[in-house]
Amino acid sequence: MTAASPSPSAAVRAYRPALREGVRFSPALLRGPRTVRLIRHPVTGSAFEVGEKEHFLISRLDGTRNLDDLAPVYAERFGRRLGEEHWTRLLGLLGTRGLLEGAPDPAPPVPEPAPPNTFWRGSRPMVRDAGATTARLHRALRPLLRPVVQLPLCAAVLALLVLLAAEAGPLIGAAGELTGQPAAVAGIALFLWFSITAHELAHGVAARHHGGHVTEIGLKWRLPGALLYCTVEDYLFLPGLRAKLVVAGAGAYLNLLLLVPFGVVWTLLPEGAAERPFVAGLLLLGAIQGLGNLVPLPPLDGYRMLGQLLGTARLAPETRAYLALRRGGRAAVAAYPARARRLYPAYAAAAVLLVLLAAGGTAVLLFLLLR
């Protein structure tokens, strides 16, 4: 006689799964009525979303715990029993996505087809290996990224902002004289285009410095404009809040840093110098470009930074969805936690105020320049 094989149920309960090495989790993110986390495959880079209960279990899969080990801590944390069916579904999901030790890698995700390029709009990669290109840039610039260098540069940017605030009137007055200097205007436009290009590369170098990976560097055009873009694949999985804020803000920081020499020139130019209109226009428009990117509205860098500071995902779309539901009364949004019921209306009001301030500020600036 042969010994009876264990029942499927007993085998499932005894199984001690281990998460494969290199799997990465995002921080907890508020998304609508739920708190979610993203899980990223270490090889394919594909990511998917799970709730807090699933993350609680997945993060404890180290090869030493089975269902009977995890059920008591799960019940203590969430006040409900961890059923065998839930456990089996979770392991099946992780196995098919190749996230368990020994599971085969799934097929890489198929990207959604991009709209076809036209003469008027489109995008095109500019380098064969964006990761290698960014790595070379990072190696060349790494000495400048040390704190001993960056602290004085940050102080210089702050001094520039103080100068711009103190000299706003003279700067606007001098920049108004550019209306009759087309060559100077063309020079400023060229500098701003270069600044935007450097802005995108700064995101990539900062991401590489903090362990991120750049997947694409290319050219995006919306005629009459054409700009460089840089895609950081694993931005949400960078370690720590500070790294995410640095990567998101690196472009605007570099835009302002490029203006520092012109701020010095402005302070040294005598009253009535022929170069003052050019320098004033460059400082004003460059500051608007740099600081404008920090406004927390999509798709600007400030929007990404605010989302990380608040611990939210898809803040603007979820705000719209909440407000649409809220029209149906309080009962329609009862599933939202108290934090979401405060945050989404507050962001909506702040966004409207920012748009009004931007429109009013633009109108006033144009009036002063043209006067």
Keywords for this entry:
371 residues, alpha+beta, 4-stranded antiparallel sheet, 3-stranded antiparallel sheet, 55% helix, elongated, disordered N terminus, transmembrane
Please tell me about this protein's structure.
- The protein has 371 residues and is α+β, with helices and mostly antiparallel strands.
- The protein folds into three domains: 79 residues, no CATH class; 175 residues, no CATH class; 60 residues, no CATH class.
- The chain has 14 helices and seven strands.
- The N and C termini lie far apart (102 Å).
- The N terminus is likely disordered.
Number of domains: 3
Average residue-wise pLDDT: 89
What's the Cα radius of gyration? 26 Å
Termini separation: 102 Å
Portion in beta strands: 5-15%
What's the total count of β strands? 7
Q: Any low-confidence stretches, pLDDT <50, length ≥5?
A: 1-5
Instruction: Provide the structure class.
Output: alpha+beta
Summarize the structure.
With 371 residues, the protein is α+β, with helices and mostly antiparallel strands. The protein has helices spanning 8-14, 52-58, 67-78, 84-96, 130-141, 147-166, 168-175, 182-209, 241-257, 260-268, 276-292, 301-310, 315-326, 338-370, and strands at residues 24-25, 29-31, 34-40, 47-51, 121-125, 214-222, 225-232.
Strand-helix topology:
Layout: H1 8-14, E1 24-25, E2 29-31, E3 34-40, E4 47-51, H2 52-58, H3 67-78, H4 84-96, E5 121-125, H5 130-141, H6 147-166, H7 168-175, H8 182-209, E6 214-222, E7 225-232, H9 241-257, H10 260-268, H11 276-292, H12 301-310, H13 315-326, H14 338-370
Antiparallel strand pairs: 1-3, 2-3, 3-4, 5-6, 6-7
Helix pairs in contact: 5-8, 7-11, 8-9, 8-11, 9-11, 9-12, 10-11, 13-14
Organism: Streptomyces termitum
Family: Belongs to the peptidase M50B family.
Keywords: Hydrolase, Membrane, Metalloprotease, Protease, Transmembrane, Transmembrane helix, Zinc
